[in-house]
């Protein structure tokens, strides 16, 4: 038996012909018999043609012939296997869906199980005027017009496979490498790390090549630098460095990065000093303090670098203000300067200054502000009154420009201010014997047409209610006001008021309001621990210790009223 095709794989829908030939039977008239799966009336001719073959036609086929009284034996079985055609797959070589103008990429159509068959291929592509009939489509020096979807299908005789899924190819302009240095000055005995990258980061297959002005066309080797993974090198020699990326074979290069000059570190003679304003090395939670880096001598302009073991990283400025301090601000602070005119010349590190933020405030002095709000308009009358068991008082101010001053308009224990912009600052009371109150912020609005935020001066106790509002000089009550917490819009209230019924620690932060397109300045609202919780804990301790008299409980209440937050007393006897 002879099969009309040499294909080892037949797919459903194709047409095949099996032929029965009797060797040496030439000149006789033969009739033929066939055994075949799934057929009721096999042919009697020498050819068995199956149009649009299906899986049910799979099986063994035999034939024999008869002429007059002569009958041949059955032929050997021919096994026919029919299967459903595989869906073609489009692949890219290299396998990058993101390529760049000028690169070469091959688009390939693969039909699993169709090996050995003589396929002709059809393509659907973004840019194909004369599509190829082979299984590969090679794009040389790709351009943006080659971007788009590619799909294919196979054909042999009159049979067509399905279309493959579409694979999308994106061709972008030739990229430019990016060079970043962790420092532009090599420290004495050290090195600088340079990082080269190609955007977008999703593009892959890049190797990186490094160059200097001394070797403008020759890439650096391990003799010139220490090479790391992820496009990084470490260099210890000064010079002008640049990089580029490359991938593929032959290598396709990006444009060169911008050049970065690396120099040697030179230590300036000036030594900085870290100072605290106010000059308190220990402050209490919720207070405000400024840490400043001062470099004396000459008119040099400096950039600043800070080093601290506190949980809060200091900014690269000569000073930064800690508002509503917490224990996370505790730590050592030191700084150094870098000349703006020569980024390679720096000072030594300053000596460290230790700042301690305590949770316990044992102060016998207090300060009240009237009106009780942080923000005020110019020409407002504001009074700051010191309270406590002292006869001599002074109100101190630490202004935004770093000056420390004393209120000169004291009437008894009250400082009276007719506000101007220069009155913005931090205020506190100090007794003649050195006791001082917690500090408060006062902000004076210079924009006569803008609103102010009405917010409490002192920290709000956790669990208490608080109301914030927005006010103009001419209108005390506004409607349709926007309120922001840490620059995030939280409420648009037609009543012009933001009410928080039970304050929690998450409500702490900066607040501001907006009315008719104008914004107020922002003010910090602090939240302190509720004394009720402390009272309940102490009552529980008393009960566990079996306090013998109500006097012990009353004593607890008196002690709590007399202090701000924490309590450390032995309250039970026996």
UniProtKB/TrEMBL annotation:
The keyword Chloroplast does not apply. GO terms for cellular component: external side of plasma membrane. The chain crosses the membrane at residues 521-540, 552-571. Residues 1-83, 88-172, 175-267, 272-356, 451-530 form the Ig-like domain. The keyword Transmembrane applies. Keywords: Disulfide bond, Membrane, Signal, Transmembrane, Transmembrane helix. InterPro entries: Ig-like_dom (IPR007110), Ig-like_dom_sf (IPR036179), Ig-like_fold (IPR013783), Ig_Fc_receptor (IPR050488), Ig_sub (IPR003599), Ig_sub2 (IPR003598). GO terms for biological process: cell surface receptor signaling pathway; immune response. One of its GO terms (molecular function) is transmembrane signaling receptor activity. Coiled coil: none annotated. It comes from the Eukaryota. SUPFAM superfamilies: Immunoglobulin. PANTHER family: FC RECEPTOR-LIKE PROTEIN 4 (PTHR11481:SF64), IMMUNOGLOBULIN FC RECEPTOR (PTHR11481). This is Ig-like domain-containing protein. It comes from Maylandia zebra.
């Amino acid at each position: 038996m002879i099969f009309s095709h040499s294909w080892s794989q037949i797919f459903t829908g194709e047409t095949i012909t099996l032929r029965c030939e009797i060797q040496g039977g030439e000149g006789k008239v033969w009739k033929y018999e066939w055994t075949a799966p799934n057929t009721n009336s096999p042919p009697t001719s020498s050819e068995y043609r199956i149009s649009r073959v299906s899986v049910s036609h799979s099986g063994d086929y035999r034939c024999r012939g008869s002429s007059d009284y002569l009958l041949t034996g059955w032929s050997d079985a021919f096994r026919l296997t029919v299967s459903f055609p595989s869906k073609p797959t489009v692949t890219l070589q290299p396998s990058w869906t993101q390529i760049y103008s000028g690169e070469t990429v091959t688009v390939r159509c693969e039909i699993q199980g169709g090996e050995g068959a003589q396929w002709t291929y059809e393509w659907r592509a973004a840019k194909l005027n004369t599509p190829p009939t082979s299984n590969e489509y090679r794009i040389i020096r790709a351009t943006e017009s080659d971007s788009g979807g590619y799909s294919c299908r196979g054909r042999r005789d009159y049979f067509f496979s399905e279309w493959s899924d579409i694979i999308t190819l994106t061709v972008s302009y030739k990229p430019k490498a990016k060079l970043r240095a962790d420092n532009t000055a090599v420290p004495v005995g050290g090195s600088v790390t340079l990082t080269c990258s190609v955007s977008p980061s999703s593009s892959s297959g890049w190797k990186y090549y490094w160059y200097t002005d001394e070797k403008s066309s020759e890439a650096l080797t391990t003799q010139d630098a220490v090479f790391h993974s992820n496009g990084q090198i470490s260099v210890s020699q000064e010079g002008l460095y640049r990089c580029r990326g490359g991938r593929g074979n032959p290598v396709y290069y990006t444009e060169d990065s911008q050049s970065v000059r690396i120099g040697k570190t030179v230590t300036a003679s000036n030594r900085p000093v870290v100072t605290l304003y106010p000059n308190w090395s220990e402050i209490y939670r919720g207070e405000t303090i400024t840490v400043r880096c001062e470099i004396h001598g000459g008119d040099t302009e400096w950039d600043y670098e800070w080093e601290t073991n506190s949980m809060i990283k200091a900014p690269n400025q000569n000073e930064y203000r800690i508002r509503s301090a917490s224990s996370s601000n505790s730590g050592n602070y030191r700084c150094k300067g870098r000349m703006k005119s020569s980024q390679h010349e720096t000072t030594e590190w300053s000596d460290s200054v230790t700042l301690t933020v305590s949770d316990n405030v044992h102060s016998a002095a207090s300060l009240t502000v009237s009106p009780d709000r942080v923000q005020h308009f110019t020409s407002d009358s504001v009074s700051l009154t010191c309270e406590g068991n002292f006869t001599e008082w002074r109100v101190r101010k630490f202004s935004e420009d770093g000056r420390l001053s004393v209120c000169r308009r004291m009437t008894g224990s009250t400082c009276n201010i007719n506000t101007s912009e220069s009155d913005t600052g931090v205020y506190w009371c100090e007794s003649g014997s050195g006791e001082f109150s917690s500090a408060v912020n006062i902000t004076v609005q210079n924009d006569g047409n803008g609103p102010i935020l009405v917010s409490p001066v002192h920290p709000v106790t956790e669990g208490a209610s608080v109301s914030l509002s927005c006010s103009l000089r001419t209108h005390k009550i506004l409607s349709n006001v926007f309120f922001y917490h840490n620059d995030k819009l939280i409420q648009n209230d037609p009543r012009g008021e933001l009410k928080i019924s039970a304050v929690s620690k998450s409500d702490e932060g900066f607040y501001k309001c907006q009315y008719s397109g104008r914004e107020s300045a922002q003010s910090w609202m602090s939240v302190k621990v509720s004394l009720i919780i402390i009272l309940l804990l102490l009552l529980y301790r008393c009960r566990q210790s079996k306090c013998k008299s109500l006097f012990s409980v009353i004593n607890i209440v008196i002690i709590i009223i007399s202090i701000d937050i924490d309590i450390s007393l032995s309250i039970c006897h026996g």
